[in-house]
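Assemble and predict.
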Amino acid sequence: MAEAAHTGSPTPKLYWMIALVLAVLTAIEVSVPYIDALDSVTVPLLLLLGAIKFLMVVGFFMHLKFDRPIYRNLFFIGVIGALIIFSVVLLALQAF
Amino acid sequence: MTAVDAAGEFRKVNDDDTGEHDVGPVRKTAMWVFLGSEAIFFGAMIATFLLYRNTTNDGPGSEIFDIPFTSASSFVLLMSSLTMVLGHHAYERRDMRQTRIWLSATALLGATFLAGQIFEFTEFIHEGLKASTSPFGSAFYMLTSIHGAHVAIGVTLLLAMVILAFQGRLFPDRGLNVELVGLYWHFVDIVWIVIFTVVYLLQV
C-alpha cells in the first residue's frame, strides 16, 4: 500500500499541535499590518510567516517530510518554477 | 521494472540490477506532478494580480478588503486541512466511523469557506468593485474565483468520498483515493495561505 511508504507518520496529537501553531501564526499575521512599530519589516515578516505556514502544511499534513523524496522534488520543481515566473514577470514589467 | 501493489497500483520498484528508483504508486506520483504544475499556474496568477494591484481606474481598490472577515475564512480553510489529515489518518487505521466524521467536517468547512467567498464578492460588488471595473478588479476576481473553483471541486470530491464511505464502498484497498483527495485539499489550502498573505495582508 502507498501508506506503507510513510516512515514515522505523525500522530493525531502532532496534527492538533501543528494546527494550533498554524492558528497562532495566522493571528500574528493578521495583527502585523496594524502594528506601527513593525512598519519597516511588515513585508518580510508577512512573507516569512506565510512561508512557515506553507512549509508546515506541506511537510506535516501532506506528509512530504515523511514520504518518498521524489514527491518533494516533483512538487518543489513546480514551486521554484512558480517563483521564477513570479520574479521574471514582476521584474520585467517593473512592478516593484 | 514495474509491479502491482496491494491497491492495484502500478509502481516502479527498487531494482539493484536496473538501478531504477522507487517512485511509488503512479497515481500518487502523477498527483504530485499535477500539484507542481498547479503551483506554476497560481504563481502566474498571483504575479498578474500584483502587476495590476494599483490600476484601479479610480474605482475601489484594496481598501475595501475586510481583513477580519477574510481572516476568519482563512482560519476555516486552515482548520479544514486538520480535519482532512485526521480523516486520512482514521482511514489508514480502518476506523470508518471517524473517517466519515472527519471527511464530512472537511466538506462542511470547505462549503463554509465558499459561502464566505460568495458573501465577500457580493459585498465588493455592492461597493462598486466588479471584474469589469478595473484591471485590479479583473485580476482579483480571476485569482480568487479560480481558487474558489478549486475549493468547489475539492468539496465535490470530499462529498463523493463521504457518500462512498456511508455506502460501505470506500474499500481498504482503495486507500489511495482518500490520500489523493487529501493532497488536493491541502494544496488548495496552501494556495490560499499565499493568496491571503500576498493579496490581502500585504495590500493593507
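Strands of chain B lie at 2-4, 10-12, 24-25.
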